[in-house]
Amino acid sequence: MIRRWTAWTAILVILLGLIIMFVHQKRITSSEEVDYSEASEPERVTITFAARDIELTPSMIADFEKAHPKVAIKRIDMDTGKMALLSNSATSPDILLIRGAKELPYYALHGFAMNVESRIRNSTMFPSDDLFPVTNIYRFDGNNQGAGPYYGFMKDWSPDYTIMYNKTLFDQAGVPYPDSKTPMTWQQLMDTAQKLTVNQQENSTQPIRQYGLGINNHFTALNQDVLLLQLAQLDKSPWYDHYRKADFTSPEMSRIHNLWNEAVDHAVGPTPINAELKTPSSLFLDGKMGMFMVGYWFLNSIEQMGMGGKSFPVGFAPAPVFEDGKRLSPVQAGVGGIISAKTAHKEEAWEVFEWFFAGPPADERAKQGWGVPAFRSKFKLLPKDTELQRAAFAFVQAELAYCDTLLDNNPYLLENSLTQALDKNIVPVYFHRKSMDQAFYQLTEEMNYSITDSILNTQIK
Q1: Region 43-51: what's the mean pLDDT?
Q2: C-alpha of 128 from chain center
Q3: ∠7-12-17 over CA atoms, to 5°?
Q4: What's the domain count of the chain?
Q5: 355 assigned to some structural domain
Q6: Which residues are listed as membrane-spanning (predicted)?
Q7: Is residue 461 included in any domain, yes or no?
């Protein structure tokens, strides 16, 4: 009896031991499986991208993240990102959209933009023979824009000094339409603008009922953008000594000032003296402006507002030229992007950069007509569904021959430095509080001070 009890006890002990071993092994296996699963989970890197919400939408981000599971995109406001980058903040974006024509040299010269030359050259998505020459805006050799390595890339662009005009207002004024292939001279532009300007009745608080000429984002007066274009057409520059000095006292400056002083005197458009609550673009869309200096990209606004061919028919004219000057139709903004030189995720940032500027988003932007694409092969994707779109396509195609010249923006100056200095020194001339000579002398002094200050903080990386 004792033997039988002992035998059963032994069997039970053995069984209990086996059960304990099985449970322990199961726990080890489960633990290993969990650890292995966690280790195989791809670690996701987040790339911060400073852009407007219409340029980088949630659906675009979702498409990218689906195809690139190891990289996430966080969009932040463009201006917020720019301030963070320029102040070397810890919250600086990895990628930032900029107005390359005006800003790229400064960002490259001061070490904010990463050199992406080798990446662009080694990528199959940026074939060099497929790039429009204006993409050279994102190249910089330490002194000259348009040469040297790439420090970014173009999103899209426009010949920004072309003229869109309201045919109905021309008909009402009995003024012939501008030619779509032969540019007006600057004086012809001013004369035409005066003919299209209609004064309001005497008892009105607003003296102008209809303007002849507007300039996108500016008063119809001397400003940085038209100044640099007109100087380039006259083969002049306000900069010398490798951009380390400025001179705004040349005879060409006086000639250009006199032209725009005429525009202010006759109030052919909104001016510092005759300011408007509405922007020039709104006035044009409202049928209150005969001519509007703006790029191809604005066509989309006309189409979306329902103005094209409905409220008024729109025509196109080339960028104006001096009778003794070169015909140029350059880029004023050239929005594109840079990768921060201080990004902690260079490979992942390039992955996003390559996708955004050369991948599916580039095709979609071209199809929507928000600008001329950077790639020749995508030019055919521009919209041609409506009569207005087809006319704009043919017009911009002819204008391409004059778009390669880059305006002479100073790499030591931030985008709006010259604009602010012009407003400060030239506007008092319109109010007869300062002479033209005084204004140009003080403008020269101020810009030289700004350049010298910037040089002290310059580093090339």
Answers
A1: 94
A2: 21
A3: 130
A4: 2
A5: yes
A6: 6-23
A7: no
Least confident window among 1-10, 52-61, 192-201: 1-10
Residue 12 lies in a domain: no
Kindly state whether residue 220 falls inside one of the protein's structural domains.
yes
Q: What is the mean pLDDT of the chain?
A: 88
Rounded CA Rg of the chain: 30
Note whether 391 and 247 are same-domain residues: no
Distances (CA, A) of 365 to 20, 320, 338: 65, 28, 18
Q: Are 294 and 162 in contact (CB under 8 A)?
A: yes
Residues in Cβ contact with 73 at an 8 Å cutoff, skipping those fewer than 6 apart: 46, 47, 49, 56, 61, 64, 65, 352
Domain end residue (candidates: 396, 421, 446): 396
Q: Which domain holds residue 51?
A: 45-157+332-396
We report the CATH number of the domain holding residue 74 as 3.40.190.10
Judge whether residue 4 has pLDDT over 70.
no
pLDDT-derived band at 58, boundaries 50, 70, 90: very high
CB 167 within 8 A of CB 410: no
203 pLDDT above the threshold of 90: no
CA distances from 90 to 86, 125, 131, 344, 434 (A): 11, 31, 34, 11, 45
If asked whether residues 113 and 130 sit together in one domain, one would say yes
CA–CA dist 364, 370 (Å, integer)? 10
Q: For 44, which DSSP code?
A: P
| Closest listed residue to residue 31, CA positions, set 43, 39, 41 | 39
CB 333 within 8 A of CB 96: no
For residue range 147-183, list pLDDT tens digits in order: 999 999 999 999 999 999 999 999 999 999 999 999 9
Model confidence at 23: pLDDT above 70: no
Alpha-carbon span 323 to 313, nearest angstrom? 29
What is the DSSP code string of 296-309?
GGGHHHHHHTTTBT
**Alpha-carbon distance values, 291 to 158, 315, 389 (Å):** 17, 9, 18
How many angstroms separate the CA atoms of 252 and 337, rounded?
34
Residue environment code for 160-194, b if the CB has 16+ CB neighbours within 10 A, otherwise e: bbbbbbbeebbeebebeebebeebbebeebbbbbe
